[in-house]
Amino acid sequence: MADNLYHSDGGSDDVRLPEIGNTSRNAPMADREVPLEGGHPALAVQQWLDGEITETAARRADVHDVELWQRINEEAERRRRMVTPSPVLDRIMAAIPQAAPVEPVSFWKRSVALNATGAMVAAAALLALGIVVGTLLK
Predict the structure, then answer these.
(1) Relative to the CA of 94, which of 53, 60, 65, 103 has its CA 20 to 30 Å away?
(2) How far is CA 9 from CA 14, 17, 18, in A?
(3) pTM above the 0.70 mark?
(4) How would you classify residue 82: left for phi > 0, otherwise alpha for psi between -120 and 50, otherwise beta?
């Protein structure tokens, strides 16, 4: 591996290469996972949220999680005390329709209302279709 390949000091073009003789310093590094002691601090919280463990078991999981649980409790208490401002509440309530929404009905369950004009147009369309089909079949 070369050091300082793009030097801009105008010096010599000598490139310094790493020493080959010193094997302890230049030993190849291996990639491997190293397990951390104590596990992930929020693992107990995640398991509790997933329903895998009870809240008391999650609280007893690790002494280091006390600060995390205190922050969770403080945030929960703060959110319990929150109240929606009255102008926002008024706008929300005004946006809700007064009548209950009607569930959509499928087209085959709807009642069909056909007036005289609609019946005459449908009859004329069927007559024209019959003439076209009869002409094509001759």
Answers:
(1) 103
(2) 12, 19, 21
(3) no
(4) beta
